[in-house]
Amino acid sequence: MIQIKHLCKAYEGAEGPARALDDISFDIADGDIMGIIGMSGAGKSTLVRCINLLEHPTSGQIIVDGQDVTSLSGAELRSYRRRVAMIFQNFGLLAQKTVLDNVCFPFLAATGKVTSDNRTRALELLDMVGLKEKASSYPSQLSGGQQQRVAIARALACGPEYILCDEATSALDPASTNTILKLLRDINRKTGVTIIVITHAMSVVEKICRNVVVLEHGRVVEQGSVADVFANPVSQAAKVLLERVDWDA
Ligand SMILES: Nc1ncnc2c1ncn2[C@@H]1O[C@H](COP(=O)(O)OP(=O)(O)O)[C@@H](O)[C@H]1O
Ligand SMILES: [Mg+2]
Question: Which of 3, 49, 60 is nearest to 29 (CA)?
């Protein structure tokens, strides 16, 4: 389980330090599909980069299974990063590599080589996302939704415990979005991997998340089960994201 405690991240701005994350605390239970929602600039991507320690928080703790990972370095930090996979809005595939080599890339990054067992595993994962027949294709030959499915297969290669999805469906049409969300839900059910879905779209949260945290100006303004937050949004941010705004008020 991930426990985020009093997390702050400040960036040096024109008028002194600006807090992108301002005393964020919440827990992510193992096996959950947790939504983190907020409008543009709320701090979502900053939070993701802090959780996988691509950026170091200014203060606060990220406790994973009882261990504060913000103090890790060297081999321990690398091994923590392998437990946390990422999926991005722009898919992040390597254009010069085939689909299969993209899925094998985490093995190459972790060990410096790709074994035949690794290739077999990568083909299994491509089969799981329905793209085994595209193994020899290049990313540019695939649709956006297909590229994101390759990125999901790649994310699963090292057997992560957590998958962080930062606006993973924001560049996709509604049909591809549904395919990706269903795939993520099925993977969560099948493997128990914890999925953290970062989005500005309430419809994404509604479709696959069990719990949700609402961010506004770097702060948690609301959290709870998706059913509760949808039935009775309390914060202004949640109401706006749910489009429950009275324009004439
Ligand atoms: N590297 C950075 N340097 C300075 N300011 C940043 C940096 N990254 C993000 N910010 C600022 O932090 C705030 C939150 O940004 P971000 O986490 O990208 O929000 P979101 O992903 O919710 O749109 C914004 O005001 C943004 O301008
Ligand atoms: Mg963002």
Answer: 3
d(CA 144, CA 160): 23
Could you tell me the distance, in angstroms and rounded to a whole number, from the CA of residue 218 to the centre of ligand 2?
12
CA of 188 to the centre of ligand 1 (A): 29
Residue-level pLDDT, tens digit, the chain, 249 residues: 999 999 999 999 888 889 999 999 999 999 999 999 999 999 999 999 999 999 999 999 999 999 999 999 999 999 999 999 999 999 999 999 999 999 999 999 989 999 999 999 999 999 999 999 999 999 999 999 999 999 999 999 989 999 999 999 999 999 999 999 999 999 999 999 999 999 999 999 999 999 999 999 999 999 999 999 999 999 999 998 888 777 776
Q: Count CB atoms within 10 A of the CB of residue 164.
A: 23
Residue (of 60, 2, 68) closest to 36 by Cα position: 2
Ligand 1 atom closest to residue 200's alpha carbon, by position in its atom list: 22
Distance 189 CA to ligand 1 centre (A): 33
Rounded Cα distance, 155 and 136, in Å: 19
The Cα 222–Cα 146 span in angstroms is: 34
Confirm or reject: Cβ of 42 under 6 Å from ligand 1: yes
The residue whose CB lies within 8 Å of the most ligand 1 atoms, and thus the one to mutate among 19, 37, 44, 46, is 46
pTM of the model: 0.94
- 167 DSSP 8-state letter: S
